[in-house]
């Protein structure tokens, strides 16, 4: 019977199909939103883990070079004839002169001892009378170095003198000209001192760094307490399994996280058996992308509402067809992005070190092997000759700027291979500082990005191909959007009539029945009705303003922002003569844009500054320019109530408020209006703030 009624009633059938279409649209958008968020999470996770692997590789390279350099310095002294003679004669005074010279020559060497072939200590600097004459043949470092009488780096051990803290031993044998071992030179490296080196390489706030020896014992860790005794690394067995499977990242259940997942990336330190491990909580990766997920979900929700309104207005298939084609285009773009991601293999090719002035002062086998040129050709600044002629000047300028500022060095250039072929490379370097804060040397690596560049070119060609297909449907889609905007505008406008009626009748009821029986509760209800309708009226006004801003035609002309800010601020101060505000406006700030839209944006920013600094005893507002991320940006700063940066993602959303209307009036549309206007000018807007210390809004207008 119900089916018969449905077939006999076209309106009922249309309504049923309309409901089904809405449900279908909701399911599709939910699925797409989930897929986009999941895909972003996957790519985001791999990107972060790749950075962790690069950080582990860089730190292992730095540590390996330091240890090799210390061994090389120690070997240079063990080959000195005078020192060999002093060791052979066990001449304490002459040997001590050499030990002092060795410590003075290298700031990384501070504790030295000399033992005879059997491991008995007979001299040290600084002096250690409590262990003089003690035999160390039972210690692991002696057993290791005496196996083959070659330089050796020990596992972490507990010192037996003075602080009795953790340290490693670097041992180099004294070998006489007759190949006879006559003693051992030992340098004690305290893990406390080694940690200063490891802390020079910054790690993201969500990450942690650990160094382990051959036995899996912690040499250094930014996460675990290791300084009070020898502690095994808790995930050594998991790392061994990952290494056996030729993986350099693995995941474990971390008890410290309540069983949560921790990703750990690692790299071997040269050939000494040590390992650098960079760990990261899985939840921190998820939280770092939360703003993106909220943004995607919000966009999906707004898109769903727009589609429902459009279907209610037209009941046509055009929108459905357009959305399906758009989704197909997005799917193809995502597929292209996946292809792009699959092309990306950033593989470290070249590692290098220079002195504090950026000159290569020692042989670099990897550079020689790649370029086919020997050390005499690329020493000093000769390595510049291996770079493409068109890239040399900008590369040298960036390099010298990094040296002058003692900051991170990063650039891209074409590097000539031994066969004359130029490959695209990304070069990165960091300074290492001595105890006085001076640059001691630079270390870095060159990364081959040729394949990535090729993939980017393919993506551009694919986008060009898709653009032509999009143009073919632009006219129809634009017409549909205009209809949707018109409908939304009409709906918002028509809502004002019943609201005016409610407001008018409520006011009449209060006036006509002022002296007639009407209890206080009834009056309170009517007052609330009025306030609610007035609030809805404000919201609708703001919706209409947003709609007008979207539809308004753009004009581009010179706009004096400094003068505009002064005029807006003066109008505020005239309207509030009892309130003194310290206003600072940088003069001469002129931009290109639409004067009408820019005035609306500036009014909203200045209104916010006056409003949120209103409770300060000495309110202060400043307008000017600053360099942000290498780009000049305008800013408006106040010393008001500020906000928590954890919620900065909500700040520019329509009707989003970080304070109640009782504290500060408003509908929460002002900053959404500012963002829309700045985006229409192809600029960017961002905010920084701190609770109780004010807020600063930066915006760019290209």
Proportion of residues in β-strands: 15-25%
Under CATH, the topology of the largest domain can be stated as Beta-Lactamase
Largest beta-sheet characterization = 6 strands, antiparallel
Radius of gyration: 35 Å
Count the domains: 3
Q: In terms of topology, how is this protein built?
A:
Layout: H1 2-8, H2 10-78, H3 81-89, H4 92-105, E1 112-115, E2 121-125, H5 140-148, E3 152-153, E4 157-158, E5 166-175, E6 181-190, H6 191-198, E7 207-212, E8 218-221, H7 236-244, E9 249-254, E10 260-269, E11 274-281, H8 282-288, H9 290-314, H10 318-343, E12 347-355, H11 365-371, H12 375-378, H13 389-405, E13 409-416, E14 422-433, E15 439-448, H14 450-494, H15 496-512, H16 520-551, E16 557-560, H17 561-575, E17 582-585, E18 590-593, H18 595-612, E19 620-628, E20 631-638, H19 670-680, E21 685-689, E22 695-699
Parallel strand pairs: 17-19
Antiparallel strand pairs: 1-2, 1-6, 3-5, 4-5, 5-6, 7-8, 7-11, 9-10, 10-11, 12-15, 13-14, 14-15, 16-18, 19-20, 20-22, 21-22
List keywords for this structure.
702 residues, alpha+beta, Beta-Lactamase, five-stranded antiparallel beta sheet, 21% strand, elongated
Structure characterization notes:
- There is one protein chain.
- This protein is α+β, with helices and mostly antiparallel strands and 702 residues long.
- The chain has three domains: 16-293, Beta-Lactamase; 347-448, Beta-Lactamase, CATH 3.30.450.20; 557-699, Heat Shock Protein 90 (2-Layer Sandwich), CATH 3.30.565.10.
- Helices cover 50% and strands 21% of the residues.
- It contains 19 helices and 22 strands.
- Strands 1, 2, 3, 4, 5 and 6 form a six-stranded antiparallel β-sheet that branches. A five-stranded antiparallel β-sheet has the order 8-7-11-10-9.
- Helix 3 packs across helix 4, helix 9 packs across helix 14 (450-494) and helix 15 (496-512) runs antiparallel to helix 16 (520-551).
């Amino acid at each position: 019977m119900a089916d018969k009624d449905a077939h006999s009633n076209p309106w009922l059938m249309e309504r049923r199909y309309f409901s089904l279409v809405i449900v279908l649209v909701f399911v599709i958008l939910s699925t797409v939103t989930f897929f986009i968020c999941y895909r972003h999470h996957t790519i985001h996770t791999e990107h972060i883990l790749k950075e962790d692997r690069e950080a582990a590789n860089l730190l292992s390279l730095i540590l390996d070079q330091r240890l090799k350099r210390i061994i090389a310095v120690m070997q240079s002294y063990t080959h000195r004839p005078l020192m060999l003679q002093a060791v052979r004669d066990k001449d304490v005074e002459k040997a001590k002169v050499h030990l002092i010279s060795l410590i003075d020559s290298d700031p990384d060497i501070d504790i030295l001892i000399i033992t005879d072939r059997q491991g008995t200590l007979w001299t040290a600097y600084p002096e250690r009378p409590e262990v003089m004459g003690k035999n160390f043949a039972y210690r692991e470092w002696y057993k290791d170095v005496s196996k083959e009488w070659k330089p050796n780096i020990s596992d972490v051990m507990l010192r037996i003198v003075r602080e009795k803290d953790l340290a490693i031993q670097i041992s180099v044998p004294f070998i006489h000209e007759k190949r006879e071992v006559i003693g051992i030179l030992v340098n004690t490296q305290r893990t406390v001192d080694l940690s200063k080196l490891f802390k020079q390489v910054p790690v993201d706030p969500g990450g942690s760094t650990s160094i382990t020896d051959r036995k899996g014992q912690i040499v250094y860790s930014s996460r675990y307490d290791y300084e009070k005794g020898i502690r095994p690394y808790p995930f050594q067995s998991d790392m061994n399994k990952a290494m056996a499977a030729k993986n350099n990242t693995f995941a474990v259940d971390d008890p410290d996280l309540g069983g949560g997942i921790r990703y750990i990336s690692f790299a071997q330190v040269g050939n000494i058996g040590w390992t650098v491990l960079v760990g990261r909580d899985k939840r921190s990766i998820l939280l770092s992308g939360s703003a993106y997920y909220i943004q995607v979900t919000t966009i999906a929700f707004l898109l769903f509402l727009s589609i429902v309104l459009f279907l209610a207005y037209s009941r046509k298939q055009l929108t459905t067809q357009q959305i399906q084609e758009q989704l197909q285009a997005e799917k193809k773009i995502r597929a292209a992005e996946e292809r792009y991601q699959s092309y990306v293999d950033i593989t470290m090719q070249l590692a290098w070190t220079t002195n504090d002035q950026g000159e290569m002062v020692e042989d670099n086998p990897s550079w020689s092997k790649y370029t086919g040129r020997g050390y005499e050709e690329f020493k000093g600044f000769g390595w510049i000759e291996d770079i493409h002629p068109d890239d040399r000047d900008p590369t040298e300028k960036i390099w010298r700027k990094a040296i002058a500022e003692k900051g991170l060095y990063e650039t891209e250039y074409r590097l000539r291979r031994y066969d004359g072929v130029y490959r695209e490379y990304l070069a990165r370097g960091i300074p290492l500082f001595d105890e006085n804060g001076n640059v001691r040397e630079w270390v870095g690596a060159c990364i081959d990005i040729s394949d990535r560049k090729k993939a980017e070119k393919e993506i551009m060609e694919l986008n060009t191909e898709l653009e032509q297909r999009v143009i073919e449907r632009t006219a129809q889609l634009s017409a549909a959007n205009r209809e949707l905007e018109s409908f939304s505008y009409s709906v918002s406008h028509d809502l004002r009539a019943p609201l005016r009626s409610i407001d008018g009748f409520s006011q009449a009821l209060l006036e006509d029945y002022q002296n007639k029986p009407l209890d206080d509760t009834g009056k309170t209800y009517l007052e609330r009705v009025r306030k609610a309708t007035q609030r809805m009226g404000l919201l609708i006004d703001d919706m209409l303003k947003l709609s007008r801003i979207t539809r308004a035609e753009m004009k581009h002309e010179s706009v004096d922002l400094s003068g505009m800010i002064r005029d807006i601020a003066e109008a505020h101060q005239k309207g509030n003569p009892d309130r003194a505000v310290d206003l600072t406006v940088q003069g001469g700030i002129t931009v290109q844009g639409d004067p009408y839209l820019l005035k609306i944006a500036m009014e909203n920013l200045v209104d916010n500054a006056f409003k949120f600094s209103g409770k300060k005893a000495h309110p202060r507002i400043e307008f000017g320019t600053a360099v942000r991320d290498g780009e000049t940006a305008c800013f408006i700063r106040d010393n008001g109530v500020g906000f928590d940066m954890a919620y900065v993602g909500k700040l520019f959303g329509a009707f989003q408020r970080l304070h109640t209307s009782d504290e500060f009036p408003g509908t929460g549309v002002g900053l959404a209006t500012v963002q829309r206007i700045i985006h229409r000018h192809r600029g960017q807007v961002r905010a920084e703030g701190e609770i109780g210390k004010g807020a600063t809004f930066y915006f760019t207008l290209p």
